[in-house]
Amino acid sequence: MKSPLCLAALSLTFAASAADWAQWRGPNRDGHAPATITALPKEAKTLWSIPIGNGQASPVVAGGKLIYLDEQKDQEVAHAVDLKTGKELWHTAVGESEAFSNAYGTGPRCTPLVDGDRVYTQTCRGEFRCLALADGKVLWQTSFDKDWDAPFLGNNNKSKEAGETAARRHGNNGSPVVDGDRIFVPVGSPTKGTLVAFDKKSGKVLWTAGRENTAYSSLMVATLAGVRQVVHLTGDSLMGVDVATGKILWQTPVKTGAKRHVLTPLLADDSVTISSSSVGLTKFSVLKDSGGLKLEPAWKNDQVKITLATPVLVNGHLYGLGTGGSKTEFICVDFKTGAVKWSHAGFNDYAAVIAVGDKLLVQDMNGTMLL
Questions:
Q1: CA distances from 358 to 24, 33, 130, 267, 371 (A)
Q2: Model confidence over 154-206: pLDDT tens digits?
Q3: Does the predicted TM-score (pTM) go above 0.85?
């Protein structure tokens, strides 16, 4: 099946030095675009359009190139096209694809990451690749199955082991993150490492942390309570890990049905906010403690169950989808208290939300774009 990938012209003005969107949720992984927008046109002007295969992963933009993943026959394939023309510059098969039977479709699900002259990709089945941005050549690789004892079990697997995992059943969807010379990858091995730090250039393993299955949540990096750390929402817990050593700085259990943790942790002002269909919307404070750090609950709203779409934080308020049901509401939550300020009905299970200046750009599951 072929679908079109289109580049459309909108009334956006980007900061000249920050027009790249090189990773999951943008330059700072927070859903904020360094741009302003006045209005959506009545009809967007199509600049170019190309046919592509199945896929759920977001495209990224860096250095005048657009990088996307799709499914071609039985392979997940990374493509680079010229951003101005849509002309393909290269494509590289990065691993065997998986046929999914659920409602969210088949094809790649993990957003690629561009850092400098490298492109990093991760397949549903757990094949991780570092490619050259110039020509797509594979520079180094690792396999969650062969190297980390975390085999992909498949979405139709009914075994007890499959029931106790998430990513190894429905796809390794959580995106990696780069910080300095390191790239952190949610490998999700219960025997060899939940989180693994690699040298981003050579692929050398620097450290591993945890022994849990991973979920679908992407990684975040920030300085919290004065310590640089990777924040990972796994299948069973939320943890902060020292970027230099791999030491787990703090950790708290987070249990939910089928380990269905999807949201990317939201980090702001020494706090971590998460949500799922089981645990509700919860904000934690990261505090200094004697000899280390600790995590304390700040507030919890059991009625707000943001399941799939990670919200954005704008001027002290969270904006996103309130539940995971078919009558999902778009909501505004006071970030200090967790109280819902307003809600708007009429959305479905998923919507991508981007903050553009003082406005929100929203695309729903049906492809409708709203401002």
A1: 21, 11, 36, 20, 11
A2: 878 888 888 778 888 888 999 999 999 999 999 999 999 999 999 999 999 99
A3: yes
